[in-house]
Fold:
Amino acid sequence: MGGSIKVSPKLSVRQPTIGEIRAYGSNSYFQMANTLCRIPSDIKSELDKIGKSYMEISDFELFCLLTREMPREETSLLLGDLDLSKMEPGIRESNGDLVLIDEEHDLVIDRMLYTKLVTAIRRMHGFEYKPEYATNKYTMRALIEEDKFKKERLKATQKDTVSSMLASMIISLVCSEEFKYDSKTVQNIGICELTLSYQQIINKKNAMALLQGSYSGMVDISKIDKSKLSWIFDEKNLSKNSV
Structure:
């Protein structure tokens, strides 16, 4: 509905509009949102370069490290007045767990609250949670080298995949008969509505194509997951691959 998502009594995720994201800079915005959701296997080659193993750092530990250099001005579109860079890392005496502490606002982010926070951000933007694990040091080295190669190739092509992703969604949606906004009015909706509309319209088009194919005899639906034949939105899709 365009409102904020409350993940705790003292912490909410704000939902920016497409117009606000454009004013902020879509590339900078998605880089910021991606950084908040980043996990060790996303930057395995970068961690290796500084002598750290991505298999030995937890998601929350990486979040604590990355947010030391993310001031309020950078994250305000999503987190409002919260300044992650000023939160102090600490250890909870009861169990020895790592936490981030904001004494001024009496806020403590622990592993559980962190998970709720980044899950909300992932669902809003359609980000997937895809950790990679290595069973031995040889596999780990291969994954690190593969990650390094992919990033060097991407850098060489100078392709702005983040910015083009937003542009691709908007162009695809405003040219679709199911989407009720045009290139101007789409600026007023929230990123969550854009993301879910995009996913839902894809699901509907796929479902209708399968049904038409089954009616014509071109598709054998007996071998297809029946859920793929329905274009009705399923709330379970909100949590798919996001945590």
User: Anything to note?
Assistant: The first strand starts at residue 5 and ends at 8. The radius of gyration is 21 Å. Strands lie at 5-8, 11-13, 88-91, 98-102, 107-109. The longest helix spans residues 191-216.
